Every structure is written in structure tokens, then in C-alpha cells.
Amino acid sequence: MLLFVFLNAGLPVNASTKDTAYIAGEIRKSKNLLEKLPDSALVHANLAFQSALSIGNDTLLGSALFLIGESYYRGGNAKLALDYLFRSLSLVEKDLHSSSYPLRQMNLIRLLNEISSCYFDLKMIDLALQYSERTVSVIEESNRRKPGTIKPFVRMIVLYNTGSLYLHKEDYIKSKKYFREVEKLNATLHDSSTMAGLLSNEGNILKANGEYEKANKSFMKSKEIWEKLGSCKGYVSVYNNLGENFLLQKKYADAIYWLKLVIEKGTECGAMRSVQIATKMLSDVYKQTGNLSEAIKMQELNLKLSDSIFNTENVANLGKLAIQYDFDKQIHQQELEQREALKDQRQKQLFFIMLASVFFLLCLIIGLLFINQRRKTQNERLKRDQLDLERKNLELEKEKLELELDYKNKELATNVMYLVQQNEYLSEIAGKLLELKNENAEESRQMDRIVAELKSKKDDRIWKEFELRFQDVHQDFYRRLNERFPDLTPNEKKLAAFLRLNMTSKDISAITFQTPESIKIARSRLRKKLGISQEENLIAFLEGV
Prior knowledge:
By secondary structure, the protein is an all-alpha fold. Among the domains are: 1-178, Tetratricopeptide repeat domain (Serine Threonine Protein Phosphatase 5, Tetratricopeptide repeat); 191-310, Alpha Horseshoe (Serine Threonine Protein Phosphatase 5, Tetratricopeptide repeat), CATH 1.25.40; 474-545, Arc Repressor Mutant, subunit A (Orthogonal Bundle). Helices cover 84% and strands 0% of the residues. It has 21 helices and no strands. The protein has helices at residues 18-33, 38-55, 58-74, 78-94, 101-121, 125-145, 152-168, 172-189, 192-208, 212-229, 232-248, 252-269, 272-289, 292-309, 312-435, 441-473, 477-484, 490-500, 505-512, 516-530, 538-543. α10 (212-229) packs antiparallel against α11 (232-248). The radius of gyration is 66 Å and the shape is rod-shaped. 32% of the residues are buried. Residues 4-16, 310-321 and 323-332 have low confidence and may be disordered.
């Protein structure tokens, strides 16, 4: 048997208006009434559905549709339940990208599990197994992607239902695999209904293997747990198992007892699928015991229940629900792919626009840098031209100064030579006057005084004239000479100045009225004062001062 557990995950309420608050309230009321009063739960779920439809809130609409489907399922109408559950599933799958991950996965799991339960009740085991296995895949993927997303209890219930479906298909290997996993989980969770279900399924496997006594013990343990829990559908299902187990042992009285109990209790709590199974087995029991009237009665009741629960046309329609859902899902997937393609196209367009903008900006920057570099190059060229012009001006100025200096040097040399000649002329006159001296002592003395006065005036005037012109040409020579050699006498400074003009000893002798030998001695004395040896060029040294 399957465990009919309502996986209460709930759907989020994203708005905060009065309408959504009202809808959320109706949904809560429907959930609270679902277990014991499914008809009342259906009323509140419909109110929530209509209000959610009016405001266009798909999230609340999906929640209301699920509760409508669940209400029909709890009321015994699995066919109608499927219609609403598939509509809810479509909305929930659209909402998977907007809800939080754990919540959206839980919504998907509870819907898939409920659809599987509906198909099971309608004897469509293959479809029930398909949706149950899909539920297991969603759980495993959710916990692999984000551990702890789906609680162990939910995983245990889904694994139990999947194992039960494989049991109905008599695939005992796969069913045992799932039941072993359920036992591991329940060892920690200690859920009584799960334990009761495992015992019941264990009895079914033993019964299939012909181990009727062991099967009977498992069924009885399961029955006691269900009865203690007060779960009518649970213990009615076990009553059917007991009836079938006794029927296989040909213990007809015991079989009739449990199967009649199924009809009685199952009718009271609405477990009509179990009642239908019991009527089918009772019909077989009465046939085997020769009670044909009771066999026919049970067969008629079975047909009546089959017509009310299920018929061939419904099978086709219910199969179409799954096909329609898959088709709608494909359409929705195509729409999503088209949206993604359009989104990619827009992103590409945006990328190319951005790329073009970046390229334009890059070109603009390169252009501005080029213009700026060109301007810098022009400025540098202008600066170089200006520097070249200034250098040329300096060279011209230097050439001018050199020409002026050369001219002044030449002029100074000319004046010096003129003074030398004039001095020589005065010396010649003085010599001639000396020759005219006679023996008259008085005249001789007057002549000597004239000659001495001529020499004295000539010497001072020549030197003053020379000094003025020399300082005009060589302004810093005396200053530097005094700074470096402050002990030089005036005559030594005069000699240095004459030598600076590259004058010979003869020229200096003519100007100073000293013999060449005296000039030579004076030059030697000057060398010592200047601190230079005989090998060094005296004139070159003075030019460097």
C-alpha cells in the first residue's frame, strides 16, 4: 500500500495586499480541514482559487489548485483530482525561477507525489511509478545540489511509495531495494505509519513467496499499529491483505471475515478502492465455496464500484492528462528557449553596441592622443627652433664680442707700439740733447734737468695711457691677479700686463727705459712670485689668469 501523507510545503505569498491576505487565510483553512473534512476544505480552496484568479497571482493560484486537487483526492475522486493537480503543476514549474530553491523544490515534490498517488488509486501503476520515480529524482538532485534541501521524512515517504509501486508490479528486487533505504531512514525517524506500511509490504512479499504464516504475522503487527494510529485507510488495506492471505490458504471463513470487515469499515471512511478489491475477492471466495448468489451479489457490487471509480473512457482521458501536461511542458520549454534566444540576441546586440562604443571611444582617445602628441611635437620643434635661434644669437654675440676684443687688442697693440715709438723718439731727443752738452757747467746741469724731466713725464704718461687701454680690453685681469697673487709689486703687475699682451723684452725695455737684461731679471723674479718653473711658458700662464 501507499502512504497517503500530505507533504505540507505551502507556496509563498509575495504580495501584501488585502486580497492576498484573504487568499492566504482561505488556503490555511483548507489545509486545516483537509484530513477530516475534505468537502469543507474544497469550499475554502475554491474561494482561494477564485480570488487568486481575479488578481492574477500565479503563485497563490497554484497553491489553491493543489488544494482543490487534494480535496478531491481525499474525497475519493482521484480522476477529478488529477485535472487540478496537473494545472497546479504547470504553474509551479513556471514559478521555479522566482521562488526560493528549497520551497520551489518542495512544491514540485508534493505535486508529483500526489499525482503518483492518484494514478495508483486508478490502477494506472505504470504512470504512478513514472511520477513516483520522477519525485525521487527531484529529491536526490535537490539534496545533491544543496544538501539538506529536502527533509529525511519526505524522502522516506517518497521512497516508500516507489517501493510499494514496484511491489504491485511484482518486481520484488527493486521494491526491497527501496524498502531497505526506508528502514535505514526510519531507524532514526521512528515513524509509526511508515513502520506499519513496511510490515504490510513485508507480508505481501512473504505471501507472494508462499510463506503464509510469516506473512500473517507481519499483517497482524501492521494492523495493530494502524488501529492504534486510528488510520482507517491503513488498517482497511491490511484487512484486505489478511483476507487474500487466508484465501490463498483456502481458509475461506477467515477470508470472508476480513473481507467483510473491509466492506464495512472501508465504506465508513471512504476507502472505496479497498472496498472494490474486497468485493472482487469475496466474489471469488463465494464461487469457490459454491455460494453463487453471494458471488453474484459481490460481483455486481464490484462492477458498481468500478463504474463509480473508474472506467475505460476515464483511462484514456487520464492518460491524456499526462500527455497534455507533457505537451504543455514542451510548449512552455519552447517559450523559455525562445525567450532565452531573444535574450541572447539582445545581449549580443548590447554587446556589439558596447563593443562599437568602446571601439569609438578607443578611436577617439587614439585621435586625441595623436593630436596631443602632434601638438607636443610641434611645441618641441618650436622650442628646438627657439633654442637654436638663441644658440645662434649667442654664437653671434660671442663672435661679436670676440671681434670687439680682437679689435681692442689690435687697437691696444697699435697704441702700445705708438707709445713705444713715441718713447723711443723722446729718448732719441734726450740723447741728442745730451750730445749737445758743452763744458759750461751751468748749461750742462740745465740740459740734464730737461732730459730727466722729459723721461719722467714720458714714463708716467705712457704707463697711464697703457693702463687705461689695457683695463678696457682685459677688465678682470688685474682683479684675478690680485686675488691669486696679492704680494706682487706695482712694477711686477706692470710687467705681467706687458707679458699678457705677448710683448717682447725689447718692447718692454723701450717703454720702461730699462735694459733688456733688467727685464730678463724682472721676468725671472716674477716667475718665482707666480710659482712657475723655468720650463713653463710664462706668457701662456698669464693668459690663463
